[in-house]
Design a protein that fits this description.
By secondary structure, the protein is of the alpha/beta class. It has a single domain, classed as 3-Layer(aba) Sandwich (Rossmann fold). The chain is built from 7 helices and 9 strands, in the order ααβββββααβαβαββα. The two termini are about 15 Å apart.
């Protein structure tokens, strides 16, 4: 009876409504919100998102002049990084290399490629290579994994973290814009859980079996 009551209550809560401040920091509500949106043929979060087995999601690669954010323009390179510039792993002689990690503020939600702060930083530092490795919705856990997997390959001189307080709460979640890994502390060391991340089909198929009372 408790389980059925909770399911009925949650079904009512997500009829045409968005996450509230109360529900913002709970996996369950993010997951149910995603299920609701995905049932209407939406993508992981944005249309340019792609499933990523180690981080949950990241932008698709090779997007060209995609219209997003109310007629703003989005491009991604062959590795899914924001903008049209390609960056080989090998260093360019004589140029400093700066990586920027962050969430939607750094990625550039609601702006075009040439309106992100990483783009402006590139204009200020023409003798440097500024690589925007931010992804919307990421917590510090996903940023760290991305740095370990890809960022280190670029052999950066400087790594900048675009920080906002909301990122900290994301570190406690295993579902946000989509399912994600997270770190827990065991015996004074960080242990990664929730990895590999299940594909979208898993949640669409098995959400009915998740106990809401638990």
């Amino acid at each position: 009876m408790i389980e059925l009551s909770l399911r009925a209550c949650l079904s009512y809560t997500f009829v045409g409504k968005k996450l509230t401040g109360f529900t913002y920091n709970y996996d369950l509500f993010w997951r149910l919100d995603w299920i609701k949106r995905h049932s209407t043929n939406s993508e992981i979060y944005y249309k340019f998102d792609a499933y990523d087995i180690t981080k949950g999601w990241r932008p698709q690669s090779n997007l060209h002049n995609m219209q997003v954010f109310n007629n703003k323009v989005l491009n991604t390179n062959s590795r899914g990084l924001r903008g049209t510039s390609e960056f080989p792993y090998e260093r360019t002689p004589g140029k400093q290399r700066i990586l920027i990690f962050g969430d939607s503020f750094t990625y550039g939600d609601d702006v075009s490629d040439q309106e992100t702060y990483s783009y402006y930083l590139q204009q200020l530092l023409p003798n440097a290579e500024i690589i925007n490795m931010a992804v919307h919705g990421y917590g510090h856990d996903q940023m760290l994994i991305f740095l370990q997997e890809e960022g280190i390959k670029y052999k950066p001189d400087i790594v900048i973290l675009g920080f906002i307080p909301a990122d900290m709460s994301r570190n406690t979640l295993q579902f946000r814009d989509y399912a994600k890994p997270r770190f827990i502390v065991e015996k004074n060391t960080l242990q990664l859980i929730g990895s590999p991340v299940p594909p979208p089909a898993y949640f669409l198929k098995w959400e009915w079996a998740n106990l809401k009372s638990w």
